[in-house]
Amino acid sequence: MTLVVHMKAVVDCMLFEFGHKARNIDDRHGLSLSAGHSLPDFGQDATVARPDPTQILSLFDDLSADLADALADLNDWGLSGMKPGQYNHDIVADELILAPLLDEGFRVLTEESGIVEPGAASQDGVTVIVDPVDGSTNASHGLPWYATSLCAVDDEGPLVAQVVNLATGQRFQAIRGSGVEIDAQSSDRGSIAPSGCTDLSDSLLAFSGLPPAHGGWRQYRTYGACALDICAVATGSFDGFLDVDSMHGVWDYIGAQLVCTEAGGVVADGDGRDLVVFDHEERRGPIAAATPELLEELLAMRASWKI
Length: 307
Hints:
Layout: E1 3-7, E2 14-18, H1 53-72, H2 88-103, E3 107-110, E4 114-116, E5 127-134, H3 136-140, E6 147-154, E7 157-165, E8 171-175, E9 180-182, E10 185-187, E11 204-208, E12 219-221, H4 226-234, E13 240-243, H5 250-263, E14 266-269, E15 286-289, H6 292-304
Parallel strand pairs: 3-5, 11-12, 11-13
Antiparallel strand pairs: 1-2, 3-4, 5-6, 6-7, 7-8, 8-9, 9-10, 13-15, 14-15
């Protein structure tokens, strides 16, 4: 990946130009990623305070494609033995994604490495939050429900996000205020949308953790990858998602949060806390819903469990 910097004689502007590689992968692991976004044509003296969101998304595309290549060659999907619950594919993914983001000047927060500051000039005010592999246990067992999630966050919250199902290649992309793209299908909160469900008794929910009591939903599933579960709320496959135990790090949900809200869904913490955090030790309980009405019912249901 190239980084081209144009500077005037007096250093008052910088142009960052990110390289992009078109990919079409079809290998024995079933990983398939299509070509991503083209880059804007900036002039020599263009002045930008920070990269355009489409440039960041292009970078995310490159990283996801490189990760697909690396995992296609991985033979050992077992536990790393380095710390509890960590798998070899978590380490491979973290090392592959972290270095290029730092090279581009981003401050990075990942599940495996925590907060890492760039060594050179930084992208002021932008932190990229990364879950290298969400659903690592699923991946280790060959269950096709695991993803990589990348989200650029600025002082207004989530700005750019990409969540890619690494088993199928399905890609969810969102830019704040610009809707959602799922592979080649675009949305301005129209064609891609949540289900519209407003009543808990009609809902199909996804849970993380074991509900302590039946709350009156119609049916539920527990799939084990928060990012993909919330993205499935964005597309209407699930009516809602609820983290029973409030045990998720920000990297688990933040990219999918932007995907869901840009599609027209709503996302909140079960205890009313801010979901945007930069502390590696902080945990939250994200709840996503197709509608505000359903969200209120889900929040009330969780409160009634007194967890």
